[in-house]
Amino acid sequence: MSGGDETGVNRRALSEILDGLLAFGNDASDSFAGLRLRTLAHHFRDLFEPLDVPQLPDWALTVAASLGEEAAALDTNAAAYQIGLAYSGMLPREHRAALGVYYTPPALAARLISQATAAGVDWTRCRVLDPACGGSAFLAPVARRIVDELPGCNPRVLLENISARLRGYEIDPFGAWLSQVSLDAVLLPACRDARSSSPVLVTVCDSLERRPPPELFDLVIGNPPYGRLRLDPRQRERFKRSLFGHANVYGLFTDLALQFVRPGGVIAFVTPASFLAGEYFKNLRSLLGASAEHRLHHALHRGRRRLRPPPGAQARLPHDESPGGEG
Ligand SMILES: C[S@@+](CC[C@H](N)C(=O)[O-])C[C@H]1O[C@@H](n2cnc3c(N)ncnc32)[C@H](O)[C@@H]1O
User: Fold this and answer.
1) What is the mean pLDDT of residues 179-185?
2) How far is the CA of 228 from the centre of ligand 1 (A)?
3) 171 Cβ inside 6 Å of ligand 1
4) CA torsion 242→245→251→255, rounded to 10°?
5) CA of 326 relative to ligand 1 center, distance in Å
6) Which CATH number fits the domain 71-300, given the four candidates 3.20.20.140, 3.40.50.150, 3.40.30.10, 3.30.450.20?
7) How confident is the model at residue 325, as a pLDDT?
């Protein structure tokens, strides 16, 4: 478009169109169509007018630019992790602790994905959810894995395929944005070949408020937040089957994963080992024991103790696997 700026938008022409729409909408002021036109024109104006954001000081812009340049030299997973570290390190301590914003190193994510593979996940067809996906430690490598498993696939079909079976939920908008951008980077070659935009796979939401979709997931994977959580009566009712006394968020996410995974599917979570013992987790252990058709893969986050299945559970808990190995 002639006279366009770097985004290709000719702002003057757009402004004139919007003014025309508004005038037309005002003329038809009492009609429903007039109201719709005015609303639409206002929405469009919001879209194209510059956001009112505070200016960053020069030193912050310089740090951001050099961070971007360094990250651009890394592979997608390492770059997202480094940007995530910079971001999470700058969060106020209470906010970071309240949401449990501690991103997973790529090697640990690779190990869990290997364990999911060993548990029988079929990357050519599985539906995958990360319910705490900030930073994309799992979603981006999973997308890469799916792309690698479907060589020669028509790029448009590949994008539709991934769009239909990969999902991430995240409560923190920046973490969600970083996840989506990492996915965009992985899918860029397919998008270029298909002349299509990248599918939106990440939703900003509170996972604990979501209900399972009609078609459940084959794999629920991730590193859920940890820490005590005060529940309102409605949440306590929803998760009462796995609660005993204080609620720990990762226990709730484990219950949530059981609700979202199909029978015979796989849950692969990085968690502390505290759920293996102690009163507070006894109902969660019973639930896991009763869900015998589910196989639960835990990679120890802290300590070097070997995992043992919780009493009564027939969960298969892998051990003796080296990081990054496929075994
Ligand atoms: C331990 S971090 C893991 C992030 C990322 N999946 C990774 O492995 O690097 C936990 C993530 O859960 C997110 N989170 C916390 N509470 C949540 C909630 N109720 N719903 C969705 N996401 C939540 C945090 O913002 C954070 O990004």
Assistant:
1) 97
2) 14
3) yes
4) 20
5) 26
6) 3.40.50.150
7) 28
